[in-house]
Specification:
about 300 residues; mainly alpha; 14 helices
Length: about 300
């Protein structure tokens, strides 16, 4: 195996790690909400992640590089995690995981709004397949609750974050600085909201602290950084397909370690959402673009 093949293999393994570790966070985060307010937890989580990156940031000459980029990305990532984490108070981890997977249907919507790029036929099929899956998953309009709605907002924010990250990484951004500025800004935004609203900032149990540290180190610090590095080396079509595994991992963890009841109708709904995600990836496939080092084939 040559060096290029090894690099691609490690990149693919890294992306599977991201999908698996992000999938695990839904049930883990839900368990932590017993010990800390969701908004405060997001702030503490990202503050720890930023602090862990600081030694590498101090070695950079231009430490303020990507400050503006980080601010823009921090808006989307704050909306993503504040909505998703709060939503877990009202919905199941499996529902949240599958609904967050609907980010795939927002990408063509945003591309049409901001770049006037019309959606393809397969993207329309993808959207309807995924939306039908959400209808089965939540039990229709009557079963759709606040947590499901917040998870849907998180999916839209996730989509926006991916599109903008794509732009910056293609421009050879310094991934350390880009991640660092996002992390500390998300921490400031979240803790600021907690302070203004008078939400408790204390973590009332040692288990809560261990969970927050886990979330800061693995799904936040390592996964975000590995994602940016891996996507520079992996074909975008492959990246998209690997990321469809995130809601699958979320459901697996929820139905096993999380102790949530397995319901066939919800599983079918989740399958429809994942199928919609896969169809969406096929709609974006372009052989010429797949051979280039792009983050997303958009």
């Amino acid at each position: 195996m040559n060096k290029l093949s090894k690099n691609k293999l490690f990149s693919d393994i890294g992306l599977f790690y991201c999908a698996a570790i992000w999938g695990s966070t839904f049930v883990i985060t839900k368990a932590a909400l017993e010990f800390v307010h969701p908004i405060s937890m997001v702030g503490i989580r990202f503050l720890i992640a930023a602090a862990l990156l600081l030694p590498w940031v101090m070695k950079r000459k231009d430490k303020l590089r990507h400050l503006k980029d980080g601010f823009i990305l921090s808006f989307f990532i704050s909306l993503l995690y504040l909505a998703q984490t709060t939503g877990l108070l009202y919905t199941t981890a499996s529902n949240s995981g599958f609904i967050t997977g609907l980010f795939i249907i927002f990408i063509p919507v945003f591309m049409f709004i901001f770049r006037k790029k019309k959606p393809k036929g397969l993207q329309i099929i993808s959207a309807f397949t995924a939306l039908f899956g959400m209808w089965l998953l939540t039990g229709g309009v009557e079963g759709f609750n606040l947590g499901d709605g917040l998870s849907l907002i998180a999916a839209a924010a996730y989509s926006g974050h991916l599109i903008i990250t794509d732009k910056y990484v293609k421009a050879n951004a310094d991934t350390i600085l880009l991640a660092f500025h996002q992390f500390w800004m998300v921490a400031i935004i979240s803790l600021g909201i907690s302070w203004i609203m008078g939400y408790p900032m204390a973590v009332t149990n040692a288990n809560g602290w261990w969970i927050i540290i886990f979330l800061a180190v693995f799904p936040t610090l390592t996964a975000f950084y590995i994602q940016m590095l891996a996507q520079k080396k992996s074909e975008p079509f492959k990246v998209g397909l690997i990321f469809t595994m995130e809601p699958v991992f979320a459901a697996m963890f929820a139905w096993t370690l999380g102790g949530e009841s397995f319901m066939l109708i919800k599983a079918i709904g989740g399958l429809c959402i994942v199928s919609g995600m896969i169809i969406g990836e096929f709609s974006k496939f372009n052989l010429k673009k797949a051979l280039k080092k792009e983050v997303l084939p958009i």
